Amino acid sequence: xxxPAPVLKDYAERIEQLATKLxxxxxxxxxxxxxxxxxxxxxxxxxxxxxxxxxxxxxxxHQLIRxxxxxxxxxxxxxxGDPCHAYLVENNSLPENTLVTAHVLGHADFAKNNHLFAxxxxxxGGHILEQAAARAHRIEAALTQYGQQRVEAILDAxxxxxxxxxxxxxxxRRPYDTNNGAVPAGAGFEPAAFxxxxxxxxxEKTASRPQPTYSRAPIPPQPExxxxxxxxxxxxxxxxxxxxxxxxxxxxxxxxxPVFACQIMNEGWASYWHARLLREADFLPHDLxxxxxxxxxxxxxxxxxxxxxALSINPYHLGFSMWEHIIETRxxxxxxxxxxxxxxxxxxxxxxxxxxxxxxGLFVYQADQDGEIKIADRDIxxxxxxxxxxxxxxxxxRVAASLLHLDGSLELTHxxxxxxxxxDTDSAMRVLDYVERIWRRxxxxxxxxxxxxxxxxxxxxxxxx
Length: 465
Prior knowledge:
Elements: H1 5-21, E1 29-34, H2 36-45, H3 54-68, E2 76-79, E3 84-89, H4 94-113, H5 115-124, H6 128-146, H7 148-160, H8 193-199, H9 227-234, H10 240-261, H11 263-280, H12 286-300, H13 315-330, H14 332-341, H15 344-351, H16 354-360, E4 364-367, E5 373-377, H17 380-388, E6 399-404, E7 410-414, H18 416-419, H19 425-439, E8 443-448, E9 454-458
Parallel strand pairs: 1-3, 7-8
Antiparallel strand pairs: 2-3, 4-5, 6-7, 8-9
């Protein structure tokens, strides 16, 4: 049954008033009911209007299959900004969309007050949808001017490197000062006292001192983990429109990082507030409230479906349980301070305690060669790190540009110590092929194998010692 828009609008306005009364502080939210197929496109592309690329079509097919099998259902997509934009599925029920409205207000409060979201807003402003649409328009113009093959090759490389940014750096950066630190060759040489005496003898000609020659400061001056920025600024032969594509992908990657890095906190916070807002919204009909709470139970249950044993974390369930526990034991003011200061790393490490982990049945598992699943560890530190491991470095290997040679060849270095091991050979080769295709000079990657022995990977060769 489709949601009647006027009724939902009335409920949404009254829930917003209740949220403000309860102390939520959020940017205005624009709600829009959309068809299911449009919602799927938003979920797959990540934005309502975004650059075209074949990989999004593949994701769309995967999402369609998952949805047809009952493994995936989209309730809403919300984009933080000023204003925030929220898309709801028009053929979801009125109770479901009422719950989603309250859920979105929790997201909007989190996005306005959390330090990571606030930092992006400060760097890039709060108009991601308009900016993404403008970038998509420029890329469409490039498709017309340069052809699909050339533009798609650049997008292939940029999207393959999409997570390789350095969130500790600013979005808008200046290129390196290549004169900074450049010194004359032989600088610091001072003649000995014995030599100085003979330079001053009568009749001796003072030898003219050779003009100093200057060496270029190394590029990069330190390992550069923001590969999208480095390639956009230092790839020897990239044209202007190609650099623009790399910078466009990088800016969108910055925008999505807080959503990725705060997923458990953010979904849990929104789930806590939608439950509380519905509970205190005495203007909602009783049958609608019961249906909405049933939808809430489906969202925050610990397992993916039925009684199936889940081997992955449901961020809604974990986040909701943690916020409930924090508010019960520490109070709402302390919870709001945690919401402001932390990301998922600090949230899990500092506030997932042993008692709560045991109550939620959290453990580290391992699979034997025959496929049998066994509990490997219940230690709280191991559980925390297992939850956080996929989030490290945006879920990508930590790889830095380490040296740009004078001939334009590039060396990359994998931080295997931080990643806890070497790279998958096939994946490394594929990414190197993309990098070399747009770098247009030799590219080499230094990493280690599974035994920890140094290995050197080139896109034109296999592993070599």
